[in-house]
Design goal:
By secondary structure, the chain is an alpha/beta fold. The protein has helices at 42-54, 61-68, 72-84, 105-117, 128-139, 147-153, 161-173, 187-196, 277-280, 298-303, 306-311, 340-343, 346-350, 363-376, 383-395, 404-419, 427-438; strands spanning 20-22, 27-29, 59-60, 88-95, 98-103, 126-127, 177-180, 201-205, 207-210, 213-216, 243-247, 250-253, 265-267, 272-274, 285-291, 313-317, 323-327, 331-336, 354-357. A 5-stranded mixed sheet has the order 6-9-10-14-13. The protein has a 5-stranded parallel sheet with strand order 12-15-18-7-19. The longest helix has 16 residues, at 404-419.
């Protein structure tokens, strides 16, 4: 059984990165005191300032510091370099200890050439090495989800005890989880709920820089900032604003996933790369839902992840052909209706941490699911009505699915709203809900 855990036991097998500070309450990236200490070539940072200058008739040192998320000291150093090379000029004071600058003609010419290479202008990048070290350092210190947290998180589902244990083991260990079985029994919901058991926050960079190449990592569609970022640490040090603190990410992909989306996405108009979704999910959960609904064969899709699952790193390719090795450190959860023994690669399945068959509910589990959902909706349902439903499944030769108690009750509530009846479950409403959900005709047994 392969280990794709996103946490490790103490002691941590790597030193504290030099650009980080571990305080009593949080892990905090410290702002570099010089361009050389940023981990990025100062010339590349100066080029970033020059591209910012190209886009503005004039700008101040304060604006450059805010736009590029670099300290005023580092910006002052970079502006000095550009002035020395006569690429920008000082236009006068803009306030106490601040000046206004403009780009020269020589600067415009150089900036145009720079935009042909990379069109990125925004928060300054961090190095790939710094990103990797920071991620590993944080993952080693994230709180582990214990049995209480996992059990509480998935309590909305009615599952057999062994299924609860396997889901709990996968959630607490961070090992990958492969869920399969008939549709409608809560596989997708379970993937969502397991992520809810994960606690803690992460610092991630806005982008990664490799020489003149920029890869955007932070994505507001998937990354939720964990509150406002403070300016100073508890000890009074400036925080490196190239990093943003987020809740642990949760990314779900389904039938829209393509093979191209698992590699770097290059934006020719913008001149920089977009990180693939599984890289953006590092430190959190990546749920591959409805495996088999994608346009490529399931074997082709999952074979792409055999090496990452084995080695906890992934290889990405720039358009120049250069290979990059990036961390593959998320909780991978796969959900499918396929039979893994006949449809999927044995090489991939061997590397999954846990497998979980999510079966159709038993009559007892169906009854309990109905009771819980009614209770949560503020409704009551008699045992006689539930008995009638179970007999109807049997008489129509219809298998029960875990989602159906919820779906039938939701349709009963639709009926109550439509007919302006009080919210209540009656035999007539339940019969209409059944017909509206399953269709008017009797199911023909196979």
């Amino acid at each position: 059984m392969e280990d794709n855990s996103i946490s490790t036991e103490s002691p941590v097998p790597f030193p504290v990165p030099s650009h980080l500070q571990w305080s009593s309450t949080d892990l905090t990236p410290l702002a570099p005191m010089s361009a050389e200490a940023s981990g990025i070539d100062p010339e590349i940072l100066a080029d970033l300032v020059l591209k910012l200058a190209y886009r503005s008739p004039s700008f101040t040192g304060t604006k450059a510091s805010q736009e590029l998320c670099l300290s005023s000291g580092v910006i002052g150093d970079l502006l000095g370099r550009l002035r020395k090379d006569k690429l920008i000029e000082n236009l006068g004071a803009a306030g106490p200890l601040d000046y206004r600058y403009g780009i020269t003609e020589a600067g415009r010419e150089r900036a145009r050439r720079l935009f042909e290479i990379c069109g990125y202008v925004g928060p300054a990048p961090v190095s790939l090495e710094a990103y990797t070290q920071t991620l590993e350092y944080q993952l080693a210190r994230l709180p582990e989800a214990g049995p209480e947290q996992v059990t509480r998180a998935i309590s909305a589902l009615v599952l057999p005890e062994d299924a609860v244990q396997i889901a709990g083991l996968a959630g607490s260990s961070g090992r990958s989880l492969f869920m399969y079985g008939p549709p409608g029994n809560g596989k997708t919901t379970l993937g969502h709920l397991l992520h809810g058991a994960a606690g803690g926050t992460l610092w991630i960079p806005y982008c990664i820089g490799i020489e003149n190449t920029v890869i955007r990592v932070f994505d507001s569609r998937f990354h939720k900032q964990a509150g406002p970022t403070p300016v100073l640490t508890e000890q009074g040090h400036h925080i490196d604003r190239r990093w943003v603190r987020i809740d642990r990410p949760f990314i779900v992909v389904g039938g829209e996933l393509t093979m191209d989306s698992l590699d770097l996405g290059y934006e020719p108009e913008l001149g920089y790369y977009e990180a693939p979704l599984h890289l953006k999910a590092n430190g959190g959960t990546f749920l591959l839902d409805d495996l088999g609904c994608q346009r490529m064969a399931p074997q082709d899709l999952l074979s792409r992840w055999i090496f990452p699952l084995e080695n906890k790193v992934d290889c990405l390719t720039l358009k120049t052909g250069q290979k990059l090795q990036v961390p593959f450190r998320q909780h991978l959860v796969v959900s499918t209706n396929l039979d893994p023994d006949t449809m999927l690669s044995p090489a991939f399945m061997r590397r999954m941490g846990y497998r979980l068959y999510v079966a159709d509910p038993t009559p007892e589990a169906y009854r309990e699911a109905m009771r819980r959902y009614c209770q949560n909706a503020g409704l009551e349902i008699s045992e006689e009505l539930v008995d009638g439903l179970l007999k109807r499944y049997q008489s129509e030769g219809r298998p029960m699915h875990g989602c159906e108690p919820r779906d039938l009750i939701e349709r009963v509530l639709d009926i109550c709203r439509f007919t302006r009846q009080p919210r209540a479950i009656s035999e007539a409403n339940l019969d209409l809900a059944w017909k509206g959900y399953f269709g008017n005709g009797m199911r023909q047994a196979a």
